[in-house]
Amino acid sequence: MSDVKKVVLAYSGGLDTSVIVKWLQETYNCEVVTFTADIGQGEEVEPARAKAQALGVKEIYIEDLREEFVRDYVYPMFRANTIYEGEYLLGTSIARPLIAKRLIEIANETGADAISHGATGKGNDQVRFELGAYALKPGVKVIAPWREWDLNSREKLMAYCDEHSIPVDFSSKKKKSPYSMDANLLHISYEGGILEDPWAEAEEDMWRWSVSPEAAPDQPTYIELTYEKGDIVAIDGQAMKPHEVLEALNKLGGANGIGRLDIVENRYVGMKSRGCYETPGGTIMLKAHRAIESLTLDREAAHLKDELMPKYAKVIYNGYWWSPERKMLQAAIDATQDNVSGVVRIKLYKGSATVVGRQSAESLFDESIATFEDDAGAYDQKDAEGFIKLNALRLRIAAGKGRKQD
Amino acid sequence: MSDVKKVVLAYSGGLDTSVIVKWLQETYNCEVVTFTADIGQGEEVEPARAKAQALGVKEIYIEDLREEFVRDYVYPMFRANTIYEGEYLLGTSIARPLIAKRLIEIANETGADAISHGATGKGNDQVRFELGAYALKPGVKVIAPWREWDLNSREKLMAYCDEHSIPVDFSSKKKKSPYSMDANLLHISYEGGILEDPWAEAEEDMWRWSVSPEAAPDQPTYIELTYEKGDIVAIDGQAMKPHEVLEALNKLGGANGIGRLDIVENRYVGMKSRGCYETPGGTIMLKAHRAIESLTLDREAAHLKDELMPKYAKVIYNGYWWSPERKMLQAAIDATQDNVSGVVRIKLYKGSATVVGRQSAESLFDESIATFEDDAGAYDQKDAEGFIKLNALRLRIAAGKGRKQD
Amino acid sequence: MSDVKKVVLAYSGGLDTSVIVKWLQETYNCEVVTFTADIGQGEEVEPARAKAQALGVKEIYIEDLREEFVRDYVYPMFRANTIYEGEYLLGTSIARPLIAKRLIEIANETGADAISHGATGKGNDQVRFELGAYALKPGVKVIAPWREWDLNSREKLMAYCDEHSIPVDFSSKKKKSPYSMDANLLHISYEGGILEDPWAEAEEDMWRWSVSPEAAPDQPTYIELTYEKGDIVAIDGQAMKPHEVLEALNKLGGANGIGRLDIVENRYVGMKSRGCYETPGGTIMLKAHRAIESLTLDREAAHLKDELMPKYAKVIYNGYWWSPERKMLQAAIDATQDNVSGVVRIKLYKGSATVVGRQSAESLFDESIATFEDDAGAYDQKDAEGFIKLNALRLRIAAGKGRKQD
Amino acid sequence: MSDVKKVVLAYSGGLDTSVIVKWLQETYNCEVVTFTADIGQGEEVEPARAKAQALGVKEIYIEDLREEFVRDYVYPMFRANTIYEGEYLLGTSIARPLIAKRLIEIANETGADAISHGATGKGNDQVRFELGAYALKPGVKVIAPWREWDLNSREKLMAYCDEHSIPVDFSSKKKKSPYSMDANLLHISYEGGILEDPWAEAEEDMWRWSVSPEAAPDQPTYIELTYEKGDIVAIDGQAMKPHEVLEALNKLGGANGIGRLDIVENRYVGMKSRGCYETPGGTIMLKAHRAIESLTLDREAAHLKDELMPKYAKVIYNGYWWSPERKMLQAAIDATQDNVSGVVRIKLYKGSATVVGRQSAESLFDESIATFEDDAGAYDQKDAEGFIKLNALRLRIAAGKGRKQD
């Protein structure tokens, strides 16, 4: 363990990662660089500076990555209508590659030979951090304290703090929650506590970002989202940057009880786990993106996107953002978004985001063809006969040879 | 046109198909057999008998197919968590293969050499009817009046009725609607009228099966659905047949404003069309089936199902139920459902169906492994290091050779 | 039929398309523009000029498209290791989009409102020509004489020639063959004649581009192919343009009895057909491209390419080159080829092309890791335990709950 | 290490696994049960008995599994036309699940709590053995000596033999080969030695199962393979059991220089490796199975099989035979084989297996439709117009709105 000289730690400023600072210094006898990012988790990041300094850290990185996070990670992911296992909008997964990238960039800047993080050995996040790190700096040393140390209970952690004079008021409100939580601009997640019983309903006071549908306004809210090439660029006609869009949609969605999710999911490490998520803005974005695509995207491109999406979601969930396969899938997805522009109108009401209208200068909806009224010859119904006949030909030949399909 | 002797017509008893009876008799100088089925469309089918008799039909088939419809078509489809283009639950599509099958069986029983239907030449239903018919009886003659005749306006149809003494009180309430509608136990659909403008919001009084979320009760309703091998067998502990389950869920969902959908979809014949759908029970079933699978289904089987689902949805949407590829996909899907048993608890409230609990004797959720607490050695966190290292190996080698992933 | 003013015809100079020139002039009373392209079919194209002139054609296009054909169509297709139905290298399919594009461009240049071709109504080529034409010029009129006229036998065609003074010496050597043939730089195909019995072996004298394996040299020929970004740029170190590469490989392959294929394939129009193909150069290219990728391409990108390939092949076979889905797939494929560079060594011998060596500056083969000898710690075998343990976890949990996998 | 009481070892009788017997006895102080199977590797298995006895083993299992191997593993795999990475016929991969299953069954019979094998920590085989073992007996202990001990060179192994009086004449001819080899009825593989340089051509005297194409007979051999439901049941009309078929085809193929392969492949553990393979019978079987399917299998089922195949190959290559996803894929594949019956005629000549004819009572090839001659109305060419028109509709609409496809 003597060969690590300097390690960059993903540092939240909370109790656990503060203990890690000390533990790294002691165990590896190395210098620790802390990296704290604002990715929209809703807590101040600046206080992490004083805490790190108090722990003897000399190189302290504190950064606001919200714009980059939404622009370069969240937005590209939503172009694919990405959902993991039919339900999960990948709120935690999508933040990890950015953290991994910055950890490595800071390691390169500071001459560090290792990175470290506070994720446990049971979860997906360790995988996402480390795959990213290895992909970007193959020789990096990764230190995952939770897989190494024996501080595997709250009592032992506290005892360690006592021994090492780590102020326990570090312990934030968040840490007193019975749940393990993670938040960024896309979502907040809850695991553990009573959620470990998949039959138990989450308690109302667990949820932090949204009111309950019952407590939401009795009148619906209508919004209009403007898309350009697959990305939202304005809300109700007001131009916004990507992270401003997501912040605004989070407020709108949260106020209307939208985006709560309670699922059992399959982790990459092989176990099932139960999690609750609030993704107010993301829930609206998924609906809206499908709607603008429904009007502007070619059928076969749309279907191919749907077939590729589960793969793409799995790639991100499993932590392979920085991989050739993600690049390849992204190229396919992005190649379809040139005309995905227009406006989607959505009704928000007590837990539901419902599309009620969509329009686009790039619309492929051709009213003159689709109409139930007289179409003045735009579509020749007789063509359908040949279309059906030839599509049926293989089935007819098979049936003629005695094959049974029922 | 002289070579058709007897034709079996999918007869609703409404104005259009009554005109078709007469038109077939005149145009093809052939005998017409009518087939009217109750598949849960919510209208009496027995009155079709007198109407058919009045039109001179001698062989009249009127059947209650609700149980068969849900058991053999809707249920198998929901095992796959089937959605077309991310939104549509295939309510119309899934009813067509059953109609096609009965048309052909009746043709075989009555010695008919042709079948006929009232679907237009612009839609998907003609394809679904005819592909099914050809697959089951390759030599059958198909007559699609809407592709042949020139009665392409309401006025011409009315004039035809006058000329041929077809009582215009045939014209039901449904026909006076500005919308083209179709209904069965799974859903009711609306097309045409103001919906031909994709920006226009559907009027509240269009919807027939559900109250608006705003008008739904202010208190949530909780229900428990019991699954056996992928299918719902009981609601709140009360055993029911498949069609009874769907009827009950339609009522529960409809009363809580659940299952409304407003989309632009891509038809198989090549155009986009806008449709509104109410699928109250199906919307609940989809959520619940995913939830019971989340607890009982293996991860890789679940992911493979997700990758196959868009294909399976397309096969059904396009009308290939009676095909080798549907059989093949169904075999794969059904091979995964043996252990998909247990209970799902759902909250219904003002437009949303939310899963709040799930339990199963077949659960693969292992609390002793998943726990955030001490797991007494059930899972060795150190295994994660090797797991990550080998999964990263190809990325590290590539990065070591200078490949860039960002 | 009176509304066509000018039609661009894909004109081979042979009997059939000469009849079409006359038939178009007569039937549509329109001007005919002929377009004859050298795409490597091995026949002179210049003679088509005099023939067209003799038929009264004023606008005559004769072009050498060999370079464009291989560079922009064949090469991109081979980047995907494309094979249709496990065997067919798509030699005919890949030439059609280029012809379609030029037909439309010439229509635009000459002010023509229609295009025409000599493909039959039973085959794939009509679909490929027409889908391309419609995709590039949606309002174009397409005239497919074989679907319209009644000259459906050799006798009637000859009688038509007599009546219209079309010189029957037009009838080339090719036309006297009992087979329907098509050729371009990628392949030559044979259909019809005794091949209509799938049990009958093709006669040796049918094959035109290759010697039989039995007649090939008794000594193997070794060649080295140099790849840059997925494309062959040199043979045995000699730089060549794409079409020169293919010409050279055709000679090398043909001389060694390589590239004969005898299959039954599924046409897009719904029937099975039997075809024989000679693709000497393409057969070598497929082998070689896989080999250079095996050394330089990431595993997951390679596997994703393999999963997408059948779709891509189908898109091309069915005639959707000019489509959003082909564009999308091509973007994914091309995104993987940046490092597919190096040299492949191949042994050609009596019908077989065998890869015997491959090397690359971009190689991801890491001998220090892969070696069976001592690897000096490059790979820690203990990592495998954790890798296997976590990959097995879901299976162990399932087995622990009593699930049977055998 | 004290907790293992009895371990079942996959024992070849060779030097390495003999050392493992002794090492297990010493290191774990446990009883060793040996299991030696004849899966067609071409070496006597009975001699393993005396060797095991000499090492003090009391429970010795020696079994002929050839029939089971081909019938239950090789044949099902070939129904899918399985190839890994476009080239590899999975000869090693497919034998592992059977060995894993027998190891576990013997562990259950003998009351053993562990299994062991002689595969290294760098390869795929450890994964395949262990995933199978865990899937079938989740609590089993797995001992992989090569990942644990320090006998990582030939010298150390020899020294160990000396110390423990293990007769070094154990060292068979095979062991003196410069290559690491593995054989069973489906193939023999070679790795290591000069093959670790991917540019180096394999030496002629490496190959053991086939003559070189140059040394093969100057006259072709024709054979006829009879299929029933996707499996070969007779050669040249003579009924045979599955393993007899494969043995016979290995001889026929080997004598004609067929089935040599030289590739770089991607291992599941993350590295590329170079391997040479001889798969004479399998190479013929793949060609033949595709040929019989080409005549008897529906197009869409065939295409779906092609899309699923790479996944299925990966599942087997990676060691997940005993998994829900393999079961699911097998169900899909097997659901297509009911009519895959008939006869395929193949020409074997100097390295090539070429299909020259195929026939079947279940043929879907309809000569009356496919013919270039007059088809007497079996196919209406005019149907093609509507077919093309509607397939082109989405492309025309898009082009009409100004979308560019080129």
TrEMBL record, chains A, B, C, D:
Residues engaged in binding L-aspartate: 120, 124-125
Known pathway: Amino-acid biosynthesis; L-arginine biosynthesis; L-arginine from L-ornithine and carbamoyl phosphate: step 2/3
GO cellular component: cytoplasm
Source organism (scientific name): Bisbaumannia pacifica
Keyword entries, A-Z: Amino-acid biosynthesis, Arginine biosynthesis, ATP-binding, Cytoplasm, Ligase, Nucleotide-binding
SUPFAM superfamilies, A to Z: Adenine nucleotide alpha hydrolases-like, Argininosuccinate synthetase, C-terminal domain
Family named by the database record: Belongs to the argininosuccinate synthase family. Type 1 subfamily.
Lineage top rank: taxon: Bacteria
PANTHER family per record: ARGININOSUCCINATE SYNTHASE
Domain Arginosuccinate synthase-like N-terminal: 6-167
Pfam families to which the protein is assigned, alphabetical: Arginosuc_syn_C, Arginosuc_synth
Matches recorded under InterPro entries: Arginosuc_syn_C, Arginosuc_syn_N, Arginosuc_synth, Arginosuc_synth_CS, Arginosuc_synth_type_1_subfam, AS_cat/multimer_dom_body, Rossmann-like_a/b/a_fold
Sequence positions that bind L-citrulline: 88, 93, 124, 128, 180, 189, 265, 277
Stated name of the protein: Argininosuccinate synthase
Positions of ATP binding: 10-18, 37, 118
GO molecular function, one term: ATP binding
Gene Ontology terms describing biological process: argininosuccinate metabolic process; L-arginine biosynthetic process; urea cycle
Subcellular location: Cytoplasm
Domain named Arginosuccinate synthase C-terminal: residues: 179-397
